[in-house]
Design a protein that fits this description.
The chain has 229 residues and is an alpha/beta fold. It has 8 helices and 10 strands. The strands form 2 sheets. It has a 5-stranded parallel β-sheet with strand order 3-2-4-1-5, with helices on both faces. The chain has a 5-stranded mixed β-sheet with strand order 6-7-10-8-9, sandwiched between helices. The termini are far apart.
Length: 229
């Protein structure tokens, strides 16, 4: 065991296409002592499927145990263990767990290193025909109607592109709420990005509400809004 503290690596995984993983991410995952995963079963299956060989212990670190997980992982880092933090897909902390561990690691003098890669946010805006500066990222907002409308109302004065994520079960309600709150804005939507049935839509919120019924998968939405007077 090293007398020096370990390193916390924040490792991005592909959001759909397994070929998008970087060589550096493979090297880190193969070399760390511990992998803190959002779902340990999915992580093991993903490593097997992509041929990543690791002898690391895989421990659960998800939204329901984030505080306890951080308390358990920090002593291991101080004892010289190197840890990789991963989510089920994409980059940890971007609408995924990891905040508590990363914040506490910094506070306790642990070196935190990003291993960048895929992220639905950057994947979407990289191909968006809408301006992306300034950019506001909201991720997943509350599915409760009143709370959702209140959240959107807080940004009525913002002018620029807003990126949100939504599931197949609530995408229509989100688009309707956006139209109610901000009017018939232009919108760019990515569905199942980098996967076999990847698809994109560009139009306004009214036409998006006609396009989306029957569509399945995961959605990332970029709305270009103007300041409400």
């Amino acid at each position: 065991m090293s007398n020096l503290p370990g390193i916390l690596y924040v490792v991005s995984l592909p959001i759909g296409n397994a070929s998008d993983i970087s060589t550096r991410a493979r090297e880190v995952l193969s070399g760390v002592n511990i992998i803190a995963a959002e779902d340990t079963r999915k992580a093991r299956e993903w490593f097997q499927r992509t041929g990543i060989r690791t002898e690391a212990r895989i421990l659960a670190s998800h939204s329901h145990n984030e505080n306890n997980s951080a308390k358990g992982l920090l002593p291991l880092l101080h004892n010289g263990e190197n840890i990789a933090l991963v989510s089920d897909a994409g980059t940890p902390r971007i609408s995924d767990p990891g905040y508590t561990l990363v914040k506490t690691a910094h506070a306790e003098g642990i070196v935190v290193i990003p291993i960048p890669g895929a992220c639905a946010l950057t994947t979407l805006v990289s191909v968006s025909p809408l301006p992306v500066e300034p950019l506001l990222f909201l991720g997943f907002i509350s599915p409760k109607s009143g709370t959702r409308l209140n959240t959107l109302a807080r940004y009525n004065d913002f002018e620029g592109s807003v990126v949100l994520y939504e599931s197949v079960h609530r995408i229509e309600k989100l688009l309707a709420a956006l139209k109610t709150s901000w009017g018939n804005c232009e919108v760019f939507i990515g569905r199942e990005m980098t996967k076999t049935h990847e698809e994109y839509f560009f139009g306004n919120l009214e036409t998006a509400l006609s396009w989306v019924p029957g569509k399945k998968g995961e959605f990332a939405i970029c709305v270009f809004k103007k300041r409400l007077m």
